[in-house]
Every structure is written in C-alpha cells, then in structure tokens.
Amino acid sequence: MDNIRERVSIATLQADLFGSSSQPAQIVELQLVGERLVVRGQGFCQQVPVRQIRWPHAGDSSSSSSLLELPDGALLHCRPDPLLTQWSESVRAGRQPRRGQMRNVGLALAAALLVWAGLPVAAESMLPQVPHQIDRHIGQRLLDRLDALWLQPSDLPAQTQQNWRQRLTDAVAQACPDARLPAWNLQFRHGRGDDRNAGAIGLPGGTVVLLDDQLGSGTLNAVCRELGQLQQRQGMRTLARQQPVSLLMGVAFDDFSSTVAVAWPVLAQHLPFIGPTSAGAGPGGQRIARR
Fold first, then answer.
1. CA-CA distance, 152 to 231, in Å (whole number)?
2. In which region does residue 73 sit, left (phi positive, over 0), alpha (psi from -120 to 50) or beta (all else)?
3. How confident is the model at residue 139 (pLDDT cuts 50, 70, 90)?
C-alpha cells in the first residue's frame, strides 16, 4: 500500500478509450498518480483506482498493443511502451505483499485449526499414559459432589444392600463372562428431588451408583451398560475431548491436578439430575453415559 502511494508518474501515455460499442474511440492521456490512474480526455477527467484495473500481463507488452480493462467495462487501447510495462509491474509489486500476507494469514489460521482439532485426538491417544488412580480420584470427587448436591444415604438396610451386590455381581459375571470388566464397586443412594429416572450412574474409576427406588428387573441391564462405558474409560475420553490441554499437560508433567479440577464442570453436563443452577454446567435431562 505504501509503495502504491509513493508512485507518482509525471510522464503520460496516449491511449484510445472505448466506452461502448456504439460510440467511437476517444483519444485520452493516462497518468499514474499514487493509487489512481488519471484518464484525461476532451471535456472529462476520470480517476480510477489502480487495484480495480485489469492490467496487461508481462508477456502482453511485446504484442502490437495492450489493453487495460476499467471497472465499468471500458477499455484503454495502448501501444506497447516501456512506461506501460513499468506501471503494470509497479502495481503488481504493490499487490504482491498483500497477497502474500493474506496467504500467510490463511496458512496460519489453517494450521491453528488443524492443531486445535487435533488436540482432542492427541489427548485421547494418550489415555493409556494416565494412571487409573486418576480415574478413581475423579470418580470419588464426583460422588462427593453428588452426595452434597443431590444424593442422600440409602434407606436400604445394610444386609439388603449386600444381597443386591452379590446378586448383581453374579448376574454380571454370567451375562458377560468373556468381557474384560473393570474393577467396580456398587454404591446405593437415595435420590433427592422429583427426578427418579437416573437408574445406574457409572463414575470414572469403577463406582456404580444405584438409587433405591430404581432397583428392579431393569437394574442388571443398567449396570451392564454402565460397566461397558467404564471399561472404555469414557469419562476420561470425555475429558480428553473437551479439555485436551489439561490432560496433555498432566501426561507431560505427571501432574493431573488441572484435569481433576475441570472434571466436575465437564462431566456434570451429562448428569440427569443436576441443573444449570446447581452444577454450573449444562442442562439436565442427559446421562453420564459418555463418561
């Protein structure tokens, strides 16, 4: 831009101006002044921004004539002249840095987008490097928050809870004997509030929470579904997808404190009973099935 502003040509060129096919050509004089080409004819003077003119290519100057196309469609017919070549090259030289700059900006944005899009994939691929004790720690933190916000101690007698644990443990072993089930423990709670449709709630690290009033014929299926999610470490996968930097930094420096810190606001968005006012997270009505 600065180069264009500095261009001031005192010399002039003569050209034929073809405004339309129904009018004869007019003889005009051309002068390059800064960012504009001044076109002077009989009774008129027109200034056209040089960036809006279609200039002849470098190879065109060797032909018998050269054409400049103006924004309104008019044509300037010039005889070959070194001055015209100089003007054309000067305009192109002024455009090149801008084009190069825009290209570099585009490449930088594309690279940033690729990096940002690739971070969740990279973080998820590093999950094997995350100790399982981090899962258990996050699961315990989530359970503590649930106990504080929504869950209450179970109303079931201790023996009844133990009977359910044994029954479900045996049933799960029979339902999928070949599956590599994670180590899991069953916790019983009583729901607080009107939403009693949570069923089983699997938390990272292997804790599965069952609500007293949800125990019944569908309990086994709910537990198996949650154990399948736990086997795939879906809780940590969700954190890797939504907070990849914290998990990658944890792997790099063996410090997962930031991952633990963001676990609740991230995973609470998938809980069916925590609303935005109580959890500071997304809307309720979803499951934690994608842990």
1. 27
2. left
3. very high
Question: What is the residue whose two structure tokens read 């998990």?
Answer: 247
* 8 secondary structure, DSSP code: B
Residue 24 φ then ψ, to 5°: -70, 160
Task: Encode pLDDT of 74-98 as tens digits.
Answer: 888 888 888 888 888 888 776 554 5
Side by side, the strands of the sheet bearing 44-49 are: 44-49, 36-41, 26-33, 13-18, 75-78, 66-69
CB 16 within 8 A of CB 23: no
Sign of CA dihedral 49, 50, 51, 52: positive
Enter the DSSP assignment of 179: S
What pTM did the predictor assign? 0.56
Radius of gyration of the chain (CA): 37
Question: How far is the C-alpha of 202 from the C-alpha of 253, rounded, in Å?
Answer: 28
Which tens digits make up the pLDDT trace of 229-284?
Answer: 888 899 999 999 888 888 888 888 888 888 889 999 999 887 655 443 334 333 33
